[in-house]
Amino acid sequence: MGRFARGFIWTAAGAGALLLLAVLLPGCAVGYVARQSATHLRVLAARQPVDQAIADGKVPPDWLHGIETIRAAKQFGVEHLDLPAADLYETISLVRPDPTWVVTACPRDALQPVTWWFPVAGRVAYRGYYDREDAQRFAAGLRRKDLDVMVRPAGAFSTLGWFADPIRPSMLQGRESQLVDLVLHEAAHRLVYIKGQTDFNEALATFVGRRGTLLFYRQREDATCPTCRQLEDRAVDAATFATFLEEIIQELTTLYDSPTSREEKLTARRQIFADARRRARRLPSRGAGYEWFAAGELDNAVILSLRRYGGDQDIFADLLSRCGDDLHRALRALHERFAWKGLSRSERRATSPADYLRRLLSQGSDCLGEEPETLPAQSPSAAAGG
Asked: C-alpha distances in angstroms, 219 versus 72, 178, 386?
């Protein structure tokens, strides 16, 4: 049976799954899931091989470099990091070319994200929309409940290997290195995804995207590797900002845990955000600086969203170090031996995957217990270095 015949069957199966969702989900979520799933199925049904779309003149010339970058990044991820991405971005879908939109929310007096439960993904701290108007409408309803809300675009998505995700026009924007990062980030979700643990999943994918992109350019460019220097500078700035963000989170946590009234907390947090904007402008930077943060609107939803993608990077860096600075080994260790699912339900409720990994590493686990005699020889392209 051909690949696209199989794809048709899976698309039809997905349509049938909508009926099942209507039984499984509470009434308020059925409409949302049915609408977004139906749109997603249209995106999948419109997939066509990339080369065919190019030959038919459906792909503008200024997209071609981005498509070649996606192919190169995917090949690197499969061959050097063993990411399960062989069928990823083999097709392109030209319907619904705009970005998807992500809505996150949390109380104004607590750093606790609002979550929603869905089949397969479990409980997640965001809702995705194909239409910006739908996202804004839902966000407005959340704001009427006196919640902090953030709406942001997302250039790509992952179906976690359930479907062969296509290239979408919204992906083919921005810097080349950002596109490499995006491909490796989304492929990482297919390798390690813990149901109901949004922060861990996104932090890990962020780490894989950043480190993997650096390895990609070390292999691709000569010894001077100008792109590597730019990426290393961005990594330093990201670490600086992550430390800064944790300081803000600690201040907010102390405030929200205090016995003062809700009104007093909301007044005091305005001062914390104002101070944070001023401090951001003084942060040392190797790049463009942090004016985007200083000038932006700040609330709990923004703070948690920033931490979700940039937090806990030190844990994965520690694991990488214990795996001989070999990103492939580190990812294999997580995939094969990070036994989070083996914990009892009470143990999983009492800790987070990040804290559990931190505890394992504090016990001196070398690459999560990989036997020394089974270690493969490390190839230069797999060493993370810097």
From this structure: 11, 17, 14
